[in-house]
């Protein structure tokens, strides 16, 4: 499993991803799922991936090595995309290219062609945007009404996002709430695990603000987990008992 | 969808079920999913059902009308079972009987034979117990280590159970925490909805303690929802912001 969340607020973008991959319970490993393509001042593009690791790694390779354009025969890469919208289309094309090569054989061997990605960032001259790209290569975008997107094991970590994230939430709080959402997911699904990679990008900076890996045992994250657990326990204690009588 | 939770603590048993059924988004109806078979002093057995409504209704009918015993030819019903363990086996047999009749045709028409049940209660002379019965008719039992079982849309409502329910939790608190778990699920999945049916049974009473339907707009449940939402928002505000710097 995997859990990645992207949050786009007025001040900027947060993306957080776990690193656990597993092929069954007895083959657990750590792989980076948060990838950053950055030339400060020109573009900062972050991609979080969920699904079959062979597929997501192949997509990352294609994004960098490029695809020959059908229009003018030139090789396009993630570095040549003129906007975030075009970058999202390009990620979709890369997924379709991997599907063309590997999809039929994968599905014949009862492995699924299973991939979803979050793509966030800004290209100079354009807006800071956040997309979710599906396995068919199509995509949706985060909006002011729903300023976050999730991929992977998304249910455990959704209630806190639903209740606490607004477009006007400040960037540090969005990061904190994203980490709580990740903690709730790790607590309930062993397929999601440490370390955690995160990036923040301030709107119109066209460069990352923070690029950090939360390692197991890090004091701040440990404290966040403890406080959140204690707060949940406390929260229900402050609610009166049911008045129902038999 | 459906959400039902059963909690077995030292003091007794709580079972809670929503009532929404849907065949697609445009065919929504209310059906009771929490069924009670009770003769005070002899037995109190509560059954919560998830899955295909035709299947669960057929199972309920069989539990009452009975199956002819393979051993002695007598008709057995839920009322003749001498223990909760035998009652759980009997529910499993009823599910297999419905599968024998309807399963192949259901699966040919691309509808799934999909059913899970929670069975809780006490038969005089035996212990108060709580089981989850699977579609294959086999079952597991709640224990002191994991004193709750869920069926249906279980992920949204699991974090609060994980953190707050212990075997020593008192019965009223178990009910309250169960209602919070139901609220979290309804907040995130429109397929789970009001009214909510609930039963509590005190250990060795061999009769229900509380049998109640929470209707939309009920003041206590409304207050619980508001307080829980406010507490979650407050909880993250009391956690310090991340100290990470770029």
UniProtKB/TrEMBL annotation, chains A, B:
Q: Listed GO molecular functions?
A: peptidase activity
- A Pfam family of the record is Proteasome
Any keyword Hydrolase?
A: yes
Q: Which superkingdom, per the lineage?
A: Bacteria
The protein's matches in Gene3D superfamilies, at most eight in alphabetical order, are given as:
Glutamine Phosphoribosylpyrophosphate, subunit 1, domain 1
Checking InterPro entries in the record gives: Ntn_hydrolases_N (IPR029055), Proteasome_sua/b (IPR001353), UCP009120_prtse (IPR016545)
Q: Which SUPFAM superfamilies match?
A: N-terminal nucleophile aminohydrolases (Ntn hydrolases) (SSF56235)
Example GO biological process? proteolysis involved in protein catabolic process
Q: Which GO terms describe its cellular component?
A: proteasome core complex
Q: Which UniProt keywords apply?
A: Hydrolase, Protease, Proteasome
Protein name, as recorded: Proteasome-type protease
């Amino acid at each position: 499993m995997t859990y990645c969340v992207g949050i786009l607020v007025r001040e900027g973008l947060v993306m957080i991803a776990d690193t656990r991959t597993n092929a069954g319970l007895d083959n657990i490993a750590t792989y980076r799922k948060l990838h950053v393509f950055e030339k400060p001042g020109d573009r900062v593009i972050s991609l979080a991936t969920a699904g079959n690791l062979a597929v997501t790694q192949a997509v990352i390779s294609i994004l960098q090595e490029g695809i020959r354009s059908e229009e003018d025969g030139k090789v396009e890469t993630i570095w040549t995309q003129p906007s975030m919208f075009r970058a999202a289309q390009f990620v979709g094309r890369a997924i379709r290219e991997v599907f063309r090569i590997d999809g039929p054989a994968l599905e014949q061997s009862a492995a699924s062609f299973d991939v979803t990605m979050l793509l966030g960032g800004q290209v100079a001259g354009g807006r800071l945007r956040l997309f979710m790209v599906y396995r068919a290569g199509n995509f949706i975008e985060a909006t002011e009404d729903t300023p976050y997107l999730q991929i992977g094991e998304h249910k455990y970590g959704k209630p806190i996002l639903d209740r606490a994230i607004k477009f006007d939430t400040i960037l540090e709080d969005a990061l904190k709430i994203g980490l709580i959402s990740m903690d709730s997911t790790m607590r309930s699904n062993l397929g999601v695990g440490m370390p955690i990679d995160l990036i923040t990008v301030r709107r119109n900076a066209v460069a990352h603000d923070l690029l950090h890996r939360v390692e197991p045992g890090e004091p701040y994250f440990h404290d966040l987990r403890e406080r959140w657990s204690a707060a949940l326990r406390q929260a229900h204690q402050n609610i009166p008992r049911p008045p129902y009588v038999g």
